[in-house]
Structure formats: structure tokens, C-alpha cells
Amino acid sequence: MKKSKLFILGIALLTLFMISCHNKRNKLVNSWKITAVEPKMPLSDSAKTAILKNGMLTFTEDGHVTGYLQSEITDGTYALTKKGKSLVIKDETGTPYPCESSITDDQLILDSREMKLTFKKI
Questions:
Q1: Which helix (H) or strand (E) holds 3?
Q2: What is the pLDDT of residues 10-54, one digit of tens each?
Q3: 39-78 in b/e burial notation, b at 16+ Cβ within 10 A?
Q4: Which residues fall within 8 angstroms of residue 117, CB to CB, at 6 or more apart?
Q5: Is 6 helix (H, G, I), strand (E, B) or coil?
Q6: Nearby residues of 13 by Cβ (< 8 Å), 6 or more positions away
Q7: What is the DSSP string of 7-71?
Q8: pTM of the entire structure?
Q9: Are residues 89 and 65 in contact, defined by beta-carbon separation less than 8 angstroms?
Q10: Residue (of 31, 37, 26, 38) closest to 120 by Cα position
Q11: CB of 80 within 8 A of CB of 86?
Q12: How many CB atoms lie within 10 A of CB 111?
């Protein structure tokens, strides 16, 4: 009897965890336009202008990402962990770009070692 109660409790907790992670992923799945760039390392004005002009990411439900950050991403992947607080984007070559993430209904903030990027949902 105790084992069945523990089993049911375990399933309930697992379900709750999966739902909370899935909700953050659902908020991320969309297209996002960069609205602000805060460099943490030297960044030329032309590079910053290019990021603001072209910067956009589109996340799909199946874990793929396309768009432009510092260069074009044509067939990348992403992983969202730590209840939506950590996002790792990998470009088509497999190079990982880890960042701390903050996701709301209409704003995405990615804070990496090189820069902090603010996005608005489009």
C-alpha cells in the first residue's frame, strides 16, 4: 500500500515538473526580434548595428532555432533547462552558446558571457 502511494506521488511530481518546463518552452516557441544589445566585451559600432538590424531568432517546438545573432543560424538547435533559466543554442556546426534566460509572454532576455540581448516577440 505504501509503495503504491509513493508511486502515485512520484508520478504526480514528475507530471508537475514536466508541465512547468513545458510552459516555459511554450513561451519560447515563436519569433523574437532583438531590441537591445548590452556588450560585456569590446564590440564595434558596426557589429552592434548589424545585430540590432538583423538580430532575430525563431524557436520551434521540436527544438530547432534559426535566425541571426552575431552570425546567421540556419539549422541550429536549442535546449531550455533549469525551469527556463538556462538556454543553450547550438549552431549548425554544433558550437554551443550558453546563456541565462528570462522568458515572459512578450520579452526574452539572453545574458551570455559576451553580451546581454533583449528580444521582443514578433
A1: helix 2-28
A2: 454 444 344 344 456 688 999 999 999 999 999 999 999 999 999
A3: eeeeeeeeeeeebeeebbbebeeeeebbbbbeeebeebbb
A4: 34, 36, 37, 38, 51, 55, 69, 109, 110, 111
A5: helix
A6: none
A7: HHHHHHHHHHHHHHHHHHHHHHSEEEEEEEEEESS---HHHHHHHHHH-EEEE-TTSEEEEESSS
A8: 0.76
A9: yes
A10: 31
A11: yes
A12: 16
Nearest CA among 75, 73, 78 for reference residue 110: 78
Only one residue has cell 553580451, namely: 115
Could you give the CA distance from residue 36 to residue 99 in angstroms, rounded to a whole number? 16
Grid coordinates given for 79? 535546449
pLDDT in tens, 65-119: 999 988 899 999 999 999 889 999 999 999 999 999 999 999 999 999 999 999 9
